[in-house]
Design a protein that fits this description.
6 helices, 5-stranded antiparallel beta sheet, 259 residues, single chain, binds manganese (II) ion, 11 strands, alpha+beta
């Protein structure tokens, strides 16, 4: 089995406006995730914690088909748990609601090559940075993304749009709409960034690219990105998980290894 050496770092901050940090994250190689919860009366942070807890149960060393099934199962379990939690709470508190975005990446082996299997619900994002520059991998499930797709606004108008925080899919929503999946090559020297909209909603892609290209250590880079979001106003909880592909070795060892 191919071995891939991954290094990672993460940072999160409540920001300057919110009382509670409703973001959660997971960095448990080969699985990495960010979830951005929403809801009153502690519903949001519970929902995002449920999502990353379910992703933490995805086993290592799965092939592509196995990883895809394991992720789909994790999304389903999180959906069922959040819906059930809301149902139970509403018996006491009629307005109680909870939901969360989720974005997740898993390093998998497929036909002898390492790849990234990515999935998302909502507007938390995955970017990939390498020598070609910064690329947004996931596509937001949001009102402004739908407006961009329909040609009704230009992409550069999205950041200042009044409905920029309105998402069209969430874990815990009664519609139960599933995630989108993406499969990417996994290359040495590249970086993945998983982040909540408290990062990419506060700082431009240019700033993200500058930090990813200039701060070598993944933990320091995650801290720097969250610091940029705070410096730009910190209007929302901000979370960044960064994963570096250090290199490959052909050992007969477990994929990445749980560290
Ligand atoms: Mn947010």
């Amino acid at each position: 089995m191919t071995r891939v050496d991954l290094r990672h770092g993460s940072a999160t901050d409540v920001g300057h406006v919110r009382q509670v940090n409703e973001d959660s994250f997971l960095a448990l190689p080969p699985v990495f995730a960010v979830a951005d919860g929403m809801g009153g009366h502690s519903g949001g942070d519970v929902a995002s914690r449920i999502a990353v807890e379910e992703f933490s149960r995805v086993p290592a060393n799965l092939d592509l088909a196995g990883a895809r099934q394991a992720l789909a199962d994790a999304f389903s379990r999180a959906q069922a748990r959040i819906v059930e939690l809301a149902r139970a709470h509403r018996a006491e508190q009629p307005g109680w609601h909870a939901g969360t975005t989720a974005v997740v990446a898993v390093a998998v082996e497929d036909a002898g090559e390492m790849k990234w299997l990515v999935a998302n619900i909502g507007d938390s994002r995955i970017y990939r940075w390498n020598h070609d520059g910064l690329e947004q991998v996931s596509v937001d499930h949001s009102v402004v993304q739908e407006l961009v797709d329909a040609g009704q606004i230009r992409p550069e108008q999205a950041a200042g749009h009044p409905e920029r925080h309105v998402i069209t899919r969430a874990l815990g929503s009664p519609e139960g709409i599933g995630p989108d999946f993406f499969l990417l090559p996994l290359g040495a020297g590249e970086r993945l960034l998983l982040c909540s909209d408290g990062v990419n909603g506060m700082v431009s892609d240019d700033v993200i690219a500058r930090v990813l290209s200039s701060v070598h250590d993944p933990h320091e880079a995650a801290e720097a990105l969250v610091g940029e979001a705070l410096a730009a106003g910190g209007h929302d909880n901000a979370t960044a998980v960064i994963v570096d592909v250090v290199g490959f070795g052909s050992h007969d060892t477990r994929l990445g290894g749980r560290q």
